[in-house]
Amino acid sequence: MEIAGTPVTVESVREVGSDTVALELETPDEFDALPGQFVLLRAAPNGDDEDDVLERHYTLSSPSVEETFELTVGVDPEGDLSPWLADLEGGETVHIDGPYGTITYERDQDVVAVAGGPGVGPAVSIAEAAHEAGHDAVVLYQDDEPAHRERLEALEADGATVRVVDGDADDELAAAIERHHETGQLYAFGFEGFVTFVADAIEDAGGDPDEALIENFG
């Protein structure tokens, strides 16, 4: 069976949090993606019939794509694709289309990256890209079981402001947004309820949510 998209090799899979893995993929020729963009990944974990091909969108979680690039995958134990991806050992092939998306970071300014749940992947990548380019970065992250702790700790050690709040700590997140929303270009990544909350918090703080770059995961 021929699967649509560009074939790429899975270099490695590692656990980066509770039910969360980072999938490192070989960068194909002429693949030029920026932090904030996403790809469509296709695979056939259960067979070789066209009906067995599954596809999902995943946002990049690496600050660059020179030789490899990373996708952060939340693993649903009852899911049909993510558990299969989490069990890969490296050397397998998946297929991608993209990159897609107009929410990008050009390494040209200070950033405030606000993340809910799986939004931590692109938020961390944007913060790392900012620091690599000599800019300041703030990461505000809401999750009961945070992922990418090592990268967040490394960012903080390198001078970034990192604030992690519990899933029910909306007041704490709103206060952090009020404090930091004007300190750099604000990005927000997460599901609809989360990014709606972020937009409302920006407005309540006297800012303009239309100036934020917000990616709604649905």
From TrEMBL:
It comes from the Archaea. Transmembrane segments: none annotated. This is Oxidoreductase. SUPFAM superfamilies: Ferredoxin reductase-like, C-terminal NADP-linked domain (SSF52343), Riboflavin synthase domain-like (SSF63380). Residues 3-106 form the FAD-binding FR-type domain. CDD domains: FNR_like. GO terms for molecular function: oxidoreductase activity. It holds the Pfam family FAD_binding_6. It comes from Natronobacterium lacisalsi AJ5. PANTHER family: NADH OXIDOREDUCTASE HCR, PROTEIN RFBI.
